[in-house]
Specification:
mainly alpha, 77% helix, 11 helices, 262 residues
Length: 262
């Protein structure tokens, strides 16, 4: 039978965007490196649950918008309800008996998440605008984890700037690389522009005192590597993903250890 007739749990619960895992985990790791706390660990778990929730919830909303009720819709609704319940319990637990200032960056990022969601329910999530909005929005978790762990607002803001720059550079670069790998029309200058903008973001953050020099230099290295790779023969799509995992860890470890240093 078809996948529509017999939906599986993995089909409705596991995100199809493999690169999304890195964009969800990197902000958590960066925040914990700078200001570790068990509340930050819980907030990281909240982030992962929210990331997983997006997949079944999107299916339910897309099917509702198209006025159809499929077997996958029923299963996705159950999965979404379970994950939403777990997310609510975790969030309520985090807010009990502590300052709520860690929610501030999440509130600031809410419009970006809303933009991504608007595209999601219209099945247009693979466009540049929602990809940038979603990855930069989830980057706010780095600031939230930092704040709940006792980091200052300026340090927390710097963490978000680094993740935002990393996301901007990676998303635009990967889109061009995928087009090159599929031998589809592309403009290399689009990737180059993304790298320039990413560097500009962290340089401005460094000038303002939010980003330590090692932090913004990590983005400079990332941009230079992207500039070099986009001029090389395009690798297989799986290799592009593996490269981004390594580069993302490099940025997180470099910027995180720099910000945590006395």
């Amino acid at each position: 039978m078809s996948a529509v007739a017999r939906p599986t749990l993995a089909m409705v619960a596991i995100p199809a965007e493999h690169g999304g895992w890195a964009f969800a985990i990197e902000p958590v790791l960066l925040g914990l490196l700078v200001a570790f706390s068990w509340s930050g660990v819980v907030l990281g778990f909240v982030t992962l649950v929210g990331f997983l929730l997006r997949t079944p919830l999107k299916m339910v909303m897309v099917d509702h918008r198209r006025r159809r009720e499929l077997p996958r819709t029923v299963l996705a609704r159950k999965v979404a309800a379970a994950e939403a319940g777990l997310l609510t319990v975790l969030l309520v637990g985090l807010t009990l008996g502590r300052s709520l200032r860690f929610l501030a960056p999440l509130a600031v990022a809410a419009p970006l998440v809303a933009v991504e969601w608007w595209y999601d329910i219209r099945s247009r999530s693979r466009r540049l605008v929602p990809e940038l909005a979603g990855t930069i929005g989830i980057g706010s978790v780095a600031a939230a984890v930092g704040l709940v762990g006792g980091a200052s607002p300026s340090v927390a803001g710097g963490l978000w700037l680094v993740i935002a720059a990393r996301s901007m550079a990676a998303v635009i670069f990967v889109r061009v690389q995928l087009l090159r790998a599929k031998q589809q029309p592309h403009k290399r200058t689009v990737s180059d522009l993304g790298q320039v903008l990413a560097v500009l973001v962290v340089v401005l953050g460094a000038v303002a005192g939010f980003v330590p020099w090692v932090g913004w230099s990590a983005i400079v290295v990332l941009a230079v590597v992207h500039l070099w790779l986009v001029r090389r023969p395009p690798p297989a799509i799986a290799i592009v993903g593996a490269q981004q995992v390594v580069l993302g860890l490099f940025v997180v470890l470099t910027a995180g250890l720099a910000a945590a240093a006395p």
